Amino acid sequence: MAGRLKKKSDSFFENVYDVVRMIPAGRVTSYGAIAEYLGTRGSARMVGWAMNAAHTQVNDVPAHRVVNRNGFLTGRHHFGGPVIMKQLLESEGVSVENDRVVRFEELFWNPGKEL
DNA sequence: TTGCTGACCGACG
DNA sequence: CCGTCGGCCAGCA
After folding, report:
1. pLDDT in tens, chain A (115 residues)
2. ∠A13-A32-A82 over CA atoms, to 5°?
């Protein structure tokens, strides 16, 4: 069998999407945490940029569960609406106030730790 | 092809 | 305390 069971991520983006999809509902993570899990801690920017490309993906990428290190919804403007991200999070039971995730530290999901 | 940008993070002064 | 800069990598003109 020639090989690869899974295409092992042709792109760095695929890796990011895979991690983001693993985030359980009602939980949130940060760009840096994903980057660190992928082994590229310094490339946290690419994680955010991957989210931008995620919009082109047919698969549902819960990018709304990804926030910055402070728990602020930095990318809320990229969902097609400034309140979409907030509503999605609240729909999953995550309280968002002042563009910030309430009890972010409690809801924080570490991909390298939880897995 | 080269160069710029980008939803971040951490360090430094 | 707050402002600024560097780093990382991939997509796009």
Report:
1. 644 444 555 688 888 999 999 999 999 999 999 999 988 888 899 999 999 989 888 888 999 999 999 999 999 989 888 899 999 999 999 999 999 999 999 999 999 887 7
2. 75
Pick from A70, A66, A56: nearest CA to A21: A66
A22-45 burial: b if 16+ Cβ within 10 Å, else e? ebeeebbbbbbbbbbbbebeebbe
Residue A22 lies in a domain: yes
Q: How far is the CA of A93 from the C1' of B5 (A)?
A: 35
Q: Nearest residue (Cα to C1') for C8?
A: A43
State, as a whole number of angstroms, the distance between the CA of A87 and the C1' of C13. Answer: 35
Query: Which pTM value belongs to this model?
Result: 0.88
Residue A47 belongs to some domain of the structure: yes
How many of the other CB atoms lie within 10 Å of CB of A88?
19
**Whole domain around residue A33: which residue ranges?**
12-114
How many domains are contained in chain A?
A: 1
